[in-house]
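During the reporting period the student researcher (J.K.) took over the structure-prediction task from the postdoctoral fellow and processed the backlog of single-chain submissions. One of the processed entries is reproduced below for the supervisory committee.
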Amino acid sequence: MLKEFKEFAMRGNVVDMAVGIIIGAAFGTIVKSLVADIIMPPIGLLLGNVDFSNLFVVIKSGSIAGPFATLAEAQKAGAVTINYGVFINTIISFIIVAFAVFLIIRSINRLKRKEETPPEEPTTKECPHCLSTIPIKATRCAYCTVELQTG
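J.K. obtained the following structure tokens:
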């Protein structure tokens, strides 16, 4: 049983999938940082110094009554919050990841299309009477001189 498990685990597909998951997780971390540290600060600045990660609505105050300046303060006080700013960051992260995956798949599809060359149009045909090879546009066989049907 251990030998069978080892064979299963060392299959190319399982190893490839594991590598893909690890790379995907690392890519997700990079995108999260890109959104939180690079994209959202300028957008927040344009919108009047808004820090999207600190946009929240308090549903129920915790042990300390609000108002709270940051989400961390609200959570520390035990307040129940709806964190719509974090949700906005997550949506932007998803859009970036989805767009990156789209670009990758698009590139792969283009490479596949280049590999798949369309079949060439035939340039000759056989005469149905004498079976000689003649040009496809011929209306009369050059060998037996029979008139050919077109179309």
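The committee noted the following: The helical segments are 2-9, 12-46, 71-76, 84-115.
J.K. will present the remaining backlog at the next meeting.
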